[in-house]
Amino acid sequence: MSKQSRQFQVPDALANLYDFANTLDVRHFIEHGAPHQQDDELKSPEDLAGWMEQRRLTRPGTKVTPAMFATTLRLREDLRAYLQRDPLERRGKGATRTLNEAIAAFPLVAELGGDGANLRAAREDALAGLSLLVAELYDGARDGSLDRLKMCASEECRRVFYDRSKPATRRWCMSTLCGNRIKTRAYRERQRAAG
What's the mean pLDDT in 30-59? Predict the structure, then answer.
């Protein structure tokens, strides 16, 4: 679990998935007079290896090939596209088709043990740790908690957040920033149209 997932109280069961989706920062707004700097934590195979090692998803020194890196970026892109949809829209086959194609590269094996059943990676290479993200995705979809993982509705933000509101109807990662920015802009546009 990262500092960010702890700060925003993302449940441990979805923390790695949340962190992975947010490795790409496409925010492009101006705050306190300064433009937000966009970033990508996964610029290279080495960055991916370090990111997974930091979260104990792989052993230290594990090498990620360029092909593995490309597979990972596709998973992230399809995951973000899926989370961008309203939770009710996610249930359609069209919404899940590309994500299912991406997660096929990260197969899981069910194992029974003393503590019940667990899913583990079928892969034995450097990307085996990302199969644990797919297990989080599966568990979250099964218990409904994945519906609370959403993408901010602000076009200037697009950050993934965990909706802790009781009715699970939040639209923005932070209503004080993104929500306020959108509401203020809409108010100004109405004032211009009226005037």
Answer: 87
Distance between CA atoms of residues 44 and 144, nearest Å: 33
- CA 13 → CA 133, 138, 183, 193, distances in Å? 10, 11, 33, 47
Give the per-residue pLDDT at 152: 92
pLDDT in the model for residue 188:
67
130-166 b/e (C-beta count within 10 Å ≥ 16 → b): bbbbbbbbeebeeeebbbbbbbbbbebbbbbbbbeee
Ramachandran area for residue 131 (φ above 0: left; ψ -120 to 50: alpha; else beta): alpha
Distance CA 38, CA 10 (A): 23
Residues 78, 82, 87: CA angle, nearest 5 degrees: 170
DSSP per-residue string spanning 34-91: EEPPPEES-SSHHHHHHHHHHTTSS-TT----HHHHHHHHHHHHHHHHHHHS-TTGGG
pLDDT tens for residues 68-124?
Answer: 999 999 999 999 999 999 998 998 778 899 999 999 999 999 988 877 888 889 988
In this structure, the number of other CB atoms found within 10 A of the CB of residue 4 comes to: 13
Rounded Cα–Cα distance for residues 101 and 95 (Å)? 11
**25: helix, coil or strand?**
strand
Confidence of residue 5 (pLDDT cuts 50, 70, 90): confident
Tell me the CATH number for domain 3-102+144-194.
1.10.3300
